[in-house]
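Below is our example:

___
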Amino acid sequence: MDKTLKPIRKTGEIFYILGTILCSLGVCMSAKSGFGVSMVVAPSFVISNFLQPKLPFFTFGNTEYVVQGLFIIALIIIVGKFKIKYPLSFVTAVIYGLLLDMWRLVFGAEVYTETYMRVISMILGAVVTAFAIALYLRTYLPQQGYDLFVYEIATEKKLRMNVVKWVYDASSLVLAIALMLILFGRFDLEMIGVGTLILTVINTPLIAGFGKLIDKFCDPAPMFPRFAEKVFSYKAENADE
């Protein structure tokens, strides 16, 4: 790195805010492409599409944080520990869910009709979401249930983050397909399409690539280190890949 360039310091909280805003925006854009959403949110998307005709008031965002709540419960059982950031992660999931519904109100929930807009929306959705997750993985504040699940399993079981992410993504895809076949009895390419399959392969490398870029220019240390250490047991090495 150029010695004249100094990393932007104490960005932990900024990463959290940007990660939450951008992740919800990226998911909204992917959904509007009609090529399928990312495999991570695909189970929620399938469930939401099934419930919407029956419970119009129960939005995609609502489904997201309910499903994430279930993942957080599963995480507690798997690691056999309870940390304050686990329930706080659900708070993040609720905020994300509300933002997701906001973006869908702003841009509309309908799939774009023009092919070029669908392609652009899918690409931008993938890039924005991957960047958001890379930010999440570098903040001490409780990220969403999906990302927390990956981070905590890798950390507690002393496994490589990228390997855990690969397995998690593939498992989410299998679960989404199973849910779609059970609930709808058919395969719908707008829920799980070519975009979902491509993202299953490239999502982890994208996140890792953005992570390396972020690490070159930013220091994810918290603005309030004493608070981070006392409440969240923050340590400098938490910015893992």
About this structure: The chain has one domain: 24-235.
